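[step 3/7] fold_predict: job queued, chain A
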Amino acid sequence: MIVENRAGAAGLAGSETVARSAPDGYTLLVMPLDVAINPNTISRDSNDPVRNLTPIASLSASTQIIAASKQSGIKSISDLIKRAKAEPGKITFASCGAGSPGQIIGELIKEKAKIDILHVAYKGCAPAVNDALGGHVALVIGGAGTVAAPVNGGLLTGIAVASDERDPELPNLPTLVQEGLDGIVLVNWFSLFGPPKLPNEIVTKISADLREIYKDKEFTDGILKRTMRVNFHDRATFEPTMKRDVEHFGRLLQKLNSKS
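[step 4/7] structure written:
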């Protein structure tokens, strides 16, 4: 197996490459939730996963963390709301990119808490976290794979997670719902796709192989060690979820006026 990272345009560079590939099962794509968000933020016909990709299975999921820089002095969601109301437009939050799950969570916090905080979009999660560590932004909102380590190491202050329940790896962090911001639940899934018109027998074979791999405790422990959740579902379960998410984020982004 050859792994090729095709960065750029919120994963669009990679997804377009796979969409143009032969439907033989030899060129596949691993993409996060962005694949369901992108059709609503990037206006390109090739950016429709329902038409241009074949969903095979979901693989894992990542908790989204809201963390504050030490320099900001923010230690909780209530601190954030109090500060933002006292200084509207002055508090900054970093995300991994425009239209990313982190931006959407930040926009929902703004709407629910009725506060004005300023979004700063970065080209990737690492620079967003680095600027939070340096105190250049007050908050960073991103996946556990990038944000959990500095939170657990005491370099950033975790203030909440955007999941439906507390993360077992971050038990001290409340959910946004527990902090009074009802309805803000967003878990970033990572899933496997193939080119369009990938034959069902190939999808079934890959899914069966994955099911066997996920029985290996060493493999699933490796997912957990990377602060991810095991989230294996075959096409029958995952495809309807993906389609619902595409529609959900379309409605949500239209409401938040985030479409670009």
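[step 5/7] annotate
Residues 160 and 173 are 5 Å apart (CA to CA).
The radius of gyration is 19 Å.
exit 0
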